[in-house]
Amino acid sequence: MNHFCLRLIPDKKVHRQILLIEQIVKARYTITLDEISDTLNTSLRTLKRDVQEIDDMEEKLIIKHSASMLEITDNELVDFVLAELAEKSPLFAITKNIFEGRYLNIDEWADELYISTSTLYRHLNHFKKILQDFHLKLQLNPVAIEGREVDIRYFFHYFFYSTDDISHNFRPDKKIFNLFEKSFQYIMEHSNLEGHVGHRSVLYWIMVITKRLELRQYIKISKDVQLKQKELPLTYKSIQNLAVEILGLVLSSDEEVSRNEMLFLDFILLDNYVYT
């Protein structure tokens, strides 16, 4: 599991159980709890309890060759269990709901997550530190992310892109994939670009942009940046038609809003384009 996903898991026990599984998976031989104890700086008693809890979740994951010799051979099962553990984190649920435009206050979140308000505040303070890396702030009543729209979009893209390998629940759906297929074909047919696009990244960008526009959260691009865009490869005209005809992204009658969204799409395409 990547570092960003681990940061989104403030619960020390869940964090440790994920690292325990990863230690067993990475070992090229059956590994002992003593070795894992030394690596994770955790007592044997605690690790034995962790192994039992993981067994209770999925008894076929960890193969025990003796009282302390452990092995994992089913990588698909590993992915399933890691996803189950990660999604226990309140921050995953809170981030996903904020993305969907669902904003709850502290008491409502505490009830929904079955945790105390003091525990929730501790998790949210941890979340604030993560958001600072993206130049964002956390509002508490209701719980929401504040900051520049470009930074909010970048955070959501980074969040979903980073969690891609641990959870199917945060991936673009078939509708988004079809939009990507049509979009890529349109750009190749209506521009002079030749090359490849980082398709996984673009899939998540389409998911983020369409949702933010659905919530009427629009991007703002400075005049200076708009002028610089004209110096870049000519994709803007294709992007404009793409947005209207394929993606259906223009949700505002405001010409400035529409122009900014077109420019943002253009920058995203160029940023994810691999030239040949």
Automatic annotation (TrEMBL):
<dbReference type="InterPro" id="IPR050661">
    <property type="entry name" value="BglG_antiterminators"/>
</dbReference>
<dbReference type="InterPro" id="IPR036388">
    <property type="entry name" value="WH-like_DNA-bd_sf"/>
</dbReference>
<feature type="domain" description="Mga helix-turn-helix">
    <location>
        <begin position="75"/>
        <end position="160"/>
    </location>
</feature>
<dbReference type="InterPro" id="IPR007737">
    <property type="entry name" value="Mga_HTH"/>
</dbReference>
<keyword id="KW-0804">Transcription</keyword>
<protein>
    <submittedName>
        <fullName>HTH domain-containing protein</fullName>
    </submittedName>
</protein>
<dbReference type="Pfam" id="PF08280">
    <property type="entry name" value="HTH_Mga"/>
</dbReference>
<keyword id="KW-0805">Transcription regulation</keyword>
<dbReference type="Pfam" id="PF05043">
    <property type="entry name" value="Mga"/>
</dbReference>
<feature type="domain" description="M protein trans-acting positive regulator (MGA) HTH">
    <location>
        <begin position="12"/>
        <end position="56"/>
    </location>
</feature>
<dbReference type="InterPro" id="IPR013199">
    <property type="entry name" value="HTH_Mga_DNA-bd_dom"/>
</dbReference>
